[in-house]
Write a structure and sequence with these properties.
The chain is mainly beta and 138 residues long. The protein has one domain: Ureidoglycolate hydrolase (Jelly Rolls), CATH 2.60.120. 3% of the residues lie in helices and 46% in strands. It is built from one helix and eleven strands.
Length: 138
């Protein structure tokens, strides 16, 4: 059984970023706004995923696109692995929105009966797949 880790800024750093107020620098007396990251793009697409599958049998990556996973309802895990090591994924409880760096191997699985999440990625996405030798159970 694989250990599910908590998402923190430190342990997600090799793979991407947590989307939260840590990027906001302000006085706290009025509205404050921060930029998490900037990147050039030929456009974005917004998707909505209804997730029911409770295991991960393969990972995918997008060498040319950042991608967000933003939980809306339910509970899920996300498996992440560096570009050169898809056979050694780390698994995190996906309880916060994240941005994945380009080329990071990933996939998600539901913990609850149904999980919903919003996804942002480039308008055109190249996808590569890697089948795992052993599936990850949520």
């Amino acid at each position: 059984m694989i250990k599910i880790k908590k998402l923190t800024h430190k342990n997600i750093k090799p793979y991407g970023y947590i989307i939260d107020s840590a990027c906001v620098k302000g006085t706290g007396r009025s509205n404050d706004f921060g930029i998490l990251l900037k990147t050039r793009s030929k456009g974005w697409r917004i998707g909505y995923l209804i997730l029911r599958v409770k295991h991960i049998k393969r990972l995918e990556r997008h060498p040319d696109s950042l991608e967000t996973f933003e939980p809306v309802k339910g509970r899920a895990i996300i498996a992440l692995a560096p570009s050169g090591r898809p056979e050694k994924p780390e698994v995190f409880l996906l309880d916060r929105p994240v941005v994945l760096k380009k080329g990071i191997w990933h996939d998600v699985a539901a913990i609850s009966g149904r999980c919903e999440m919003k996804i942002f990625e480039n308008i055109e996405v190249k996808v590569e797949y890697h089948n795992l030798k052993k599936k990850i159970e949520a």
